[in-house]
Amino acid sequence: MAAKTKKTVYITLPAFSFDKVMFFHKIRTEKGYSAFECSFMIGKNNFLIRDAENPLKKTLIDAEDSLVLANVFNLEPYNPPCNPIDYYKLDVTFSIVGPKKMQWEIIIANDEIKPVRALTIMEEDKEIELPTSSFLSTYDAVQEYFKKLVAEGYFNSARTALDIVNKYRESDEFGPDFHPRYLIKNIRYYLNKKSGEPILFDRRTNRFSRRLYYKPFNFEILSSNGLISKTFLSAGINTYQEAGNWVSSLTYRRNHDKENELALFKDLSGTCSTKHALLKRLADENGKHELKLMLGLFKMDGNNTPAIKDLLKEHNLPYIPEAHNYLSVSNYIIDFTGIGINETKFELDILKEIEIQADQITNFKVQFHREHLAQWIEDNKIPYSLDEIWSIREECIELITSANNLI
Questions:
Q1: Which tens digits make up the pLDDT trace of 51-83?
Q2: What is the Cα Rg of the chain in Å?
Q3: Measured CA distances, 146 to 38, 187, 191, 199 (Å)
Q4: How far apart are CA 314 and CA 242, in angstroms?
Q5: What's 178's DSSP letter?
């Protein structure tokens, strides 16, 4: 189809980054990987590679993304060759060659390695399937192995797309040259609530912002398994996920008696301590001891807790180490505090964490917290006493409570 419009722009890009993008474009098209398939394997957004290959956008393939792609393509870790030029001057002529489809004709005007290199890249359809010599297998065979992994508990832990494809490649049935095309289709099928079987979640990312796939922790509550279970069932709550949603919906406020196991039912409110201790007890009553109650110390600052930003600034404090309770199962955090905590971002701010039991959320937690604060004050020459920091911290808790009860 003839180009409908044509326009030339002149731009400058880092030579190293541009060479890397072009290298991976060449490799992926030779090996038969679409831009969407590569983006899916990286696990950030499904248009990352398409955008990186668009010279008019600033999207780049970072070092960690390069490692993922090298693994997907069975390459050695890649860095472009040394280039005497720091920046390329590009003449980019772009045109529309189909319905909303772009084509870029790129001339590197100052290339000292190979003068006046010319490249042409056409934007791909999202669902395009490029010819490949890699081993595709069949959709059904890939699905059967996927079901086997689910049944064996493989997805009880959170996995990246690269983790999953490497699992397939380790098997004799698929081997090291396995292409993830049908695996990607199966992952999407098992996430789809409308036309698939939604047994997996993808609501978490890891520390490199890569999407994680996992089977959500859940179980049926059994009436004969203790006081907590019976109380939830009496309230019409029959599963752990329902219990977690109910706990999360409760007002964030300190309980009158934290020692009372049913304090949340009495006060219809709670904090990170009482909310997660209740869910830990529920899991223990039902024999789900893999669910852990965690006590973590994290950097509470104006970024992760906006309500305290001005107070910290007033006291010239970059952050305060705060004690927080949450749950952990397999290799991901679950937080039902109900104040909008992003588990992945929170994980990056953790200073120290230990597993505790539900009866350690009172005196033990306070002692653990105060001991760490005392050491933090000494190590960082903080110009406040322990009692003064504790008082500022109490003001922070009041601000957090007020902010969340106004929502």
A1: 999 988 889 899 899 999 999 999 876 666 667
A2: 27
A3: 20, 9, 13, 12
A4: 41
A5: B
Residues 311-317: contacts with CB under 8 Å, at least 24 apart: 311/392, 311/395, 311/396, 311/399, 312/396, 315/384, 315/392, 317/382, 317/392
Report the distance separating Cα 388 and Cα 237, nearest Å: 43
Residue 222 contacts by C-beta under 8 Å, 6 or more apart in sequence? 229, 286
* Residue ranges with strand state E in 242-291: 251-252, 269-270
Return d(Cα 183, Cα 381) in angstroms, integer.
Answer: 54
| Residue length of the chain | 407
> Measured between alpha carbons, how far is 341 from 351 in angstroms, rounded to an integer?
16
Q: Which among 83, 85, 91 is positioned nearest to 56, based on CA atoms?
A: 91
| 360: its two tokens | 């350690």
Q: What is the pLDDT of residues 365-382, one digit of tens each?
A: 999 999 999 999 999 999
For residue range 239-263, list pLDDT tens digits in order: 999 999 999 999 999 999 999 999 9
The kind and range of the H/E element at 254 are none
| CA distance between the termini of the chain | 54
| DSSP conformation letters of 206-241 | -TT--EEEEPPP--BPPTTS-HHHHHHHHTT--BHH
DSSP state of 298: E
Structure tokens at 189: 């099928």
**Apex 128 CA angle, 125 and 131, nearest 5:** 140
Question: Which residue's structure tokens are 């994290």?
Answer: 298
Instruction: For 32, list phi and psi in degrees, rounded to 5.
Output: 80, 45
Closest CA to 234 of 244, 247, 221, 251: 221
Can you give the pTM of this predicted structure? 0.80
Contacts of 152 (CB under 8 A, 6+ apart): none
Q: Specify which residues 329 forms β-bridges with.
A: 332
List Cα–Cα distances, 225 to 116, 220, 228, 282, 288, in angstroms: 75, 11, 8, 9, 12
Residue 69 to residues 161, 204, 222: CA-CA distances in angstroms? Answer: 12, 21, 46
Q: Tell me the two tokens of residue 393.
A: 């911290």
* Segment 184-190 long-range contacts (CB within 8 Å, at least 24 positions apart): 184/37, 184/40, 184/41, 185/139, 185/142, 186/139, 186/142, 186/143, 186/146, 187/161, 187/213, 189/143, 190/146, 190/150
Give the number of other CB atoms < 10 A from CB of residue 75: 15
Positive or negative torsion for Cα 26, 29, 31, 35? positive
